[in-house]
Amino acid sequence: MSADGGFLEDTRSWLLTRRRGQVIFDAGEPAGLMYRVESGCVRLQINNPDGERQIVVFLFPGDLFGYEITDRVCSAEAVSDSTLRCWPVQAFLKSPQEQPRVTIQLLEAAQRRFGEMAEHIDKITHLPAKERVLWFLNGLLTCPGLPREGGRIHLPMTRLDIADYLGVAPETLSRILAGLEEDGYLRRDGRRDLELSPEGFPNARSEASLKLKTAHR
């Protein structure tokens, strides 16, 4: 995911904090604010009447969201303690001189988000469960808003979050992670920390290790 919202820096904004699990907005609510994640992690999700949910995207620092004009099309919740920057949507609608520039930038941000969601739908529809997990972990390694050191990452989301994002049962996810660890793809350190193998995940190679390998050729 690439950082969004740099074009909004000259517009009035303020910071908002949300605790882990706290609702930011619900589907169907009138849209008055748009947001950018400054720290933490946010999930956008569809809540079904039967109590189940489908997480459609995880958002990290730099990601812009909530730029609907009328009503919210999904719900947003804080995955971890998060700080959000907020802008009033009406501030742009009432500023004709800014509208063309902002509209183009928002359309570009929406296009990036649509591309990510389209890929997500394709993967969870067509890939077997194990390949979905590998795709998800590989994606985390290329996410600029998620701090990591080489192949070591701290997951801000729970196993249940990941399962609901990938469309698998939590026990299936646990079994796949255990199998990947047994096969040498990763090493688990507690419930939230993973060390991903460079052999299984090429993106896990740190810059230092790449330099070291190059020096020994």
Q: What layout of secondary structure does this protein have?
A:
Layout: E1 14-18, E2 23-25, E3 33-39, E4 42-47, E5 53-59, E6 64-65, E7 75-78, E8 82-88, H1 89-93, H2 99-126, H3 129-141, E9 148-149, E10 152-154, H4 159-166, H5 170-182, E11 186-189, E12 193-196, H6 207-215
Antiparallel strand pairs: 1-8, 2-7, 3-6, 3-8, 4-5, 4-7, 9-10, 10-12, 11-12
General description of the model:
This protein has helices at residues 89-93, 99-126, 129-141, 159-166, 170-182, 207-215, and strands at 14-18, 23-25, 33-39, 42-47, 53-59, 64-65, 75-78, 82-88, 148-149, 152-154, 186-189, 193-196. The protein is α+β, with helices and mostly antiparallel strands and 217 residues long. Strands 1-8-3-6 form a 4-stranded antiparallel beta sheet. Residues 206-217 have low confidence and may be disordered. 35% of the residues lie in helices and 25% in strands. The protein is built from 6 helices and 12 strands. A hairpin with a 2-residue loop joins strand 9 and strand 10 (152-154). The protein has 2 domains: 6-124, Sandwich (Jelly Rolls); 127-215, Arc Repressor Mutant, subunit A (Orthogonal Bundle), CATH 1.10.10.10.
Known CATH architecture of the largest domain: Sandwich
The mean pLDDT is 85
Q: Beta-strand level of the residues, as a percent range? A: 15-25%
Question: SSE order, as H and E?
Answer: EEEEEEEEHHHEEHHEEH
Tally of DSSP helical segments = 6
Task: Give the C-level CATH assignment of the largest domain.
Answer: Mainly Beta
- Total E-strand runs: 12
